[in-house]
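Re-run with default settings, no changes from the original entry. Doing this only to confirm the output is reproducible before filing.
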Amino acid sequence: MSADAEQSLMAHLLELRRRLLYAVLSVVSVFVVLLPLANNLYAWLAEPLRETLPAGSQLVAIEVASTFFVPMKLAFFAALFIAAPFILFQIWAFVAPALYEKEKRLAKPLFLAAIALFYLGCAFTFYALLPVMFAYLNSTAPAGVAMMTDIGKYLDFVLILLLAGGVSFEVPIAVLLAVLLGAVKVEQLVEWRGYVIVAIFIIAAVITPPDGLSQIMLALPMWALYEVGILVARALVKARKRPKCALPATPSKPYIRLQRPLPPAAARICYA
């Protein structure tokens, strides 16, 4: 390995270390701020369940140290959730210099849209889906059984659902990437619509409890986002196929520019 290559590799490693340090410091900083508010944060997180609990039921702490470690765990994941855009920005700042300008123009809106859709999916799950799910689960309790949910189990359950809800809203990003990378065509996505809808409802049935309302509440947004992904992908494909040859106001010398996949006979006359 030449000296220039070694210096370039060392520079990349130093840059990677710097970006990782910024990401870790962002999580630690937010965690330190949220730690004194951990109990209030857990009370807010447990609100969808507490509103649906019958009289006499409450959350319980089975483990001895659960009242201390569970809110701390929630504070850490909340810090990770809040600092996620900054962490992703550090990843982007490290990767972006190696991309072409065309790739940057394409990746940046997808990057921002993916972040927004993930947060939107988490918000939809927490404010719309969880109350319906807990109301159904409480209604299925046998007679004489009081629902006493452990605070640690509840936290794990909600975190998994929030992650699943956020990922499920990334459907249009997955559709766009599949089309832009050439894995599928827009026509194929339209043809596979029926199979995709069935798969969406199966995924919704796996994520949610076995009640029809919560399954439909999760499946319908995913279906709508799939259709949005098809529309955006079709618009991008048309934009990429559109000829980029324009006629200036004062043309000088003419030249022939063949627009693929047009045949030579359909060549357009442009002006430099």
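The CA atoms of residues 253 and 271 lie 6 Å apart. The radius of gyration is 26 Å.
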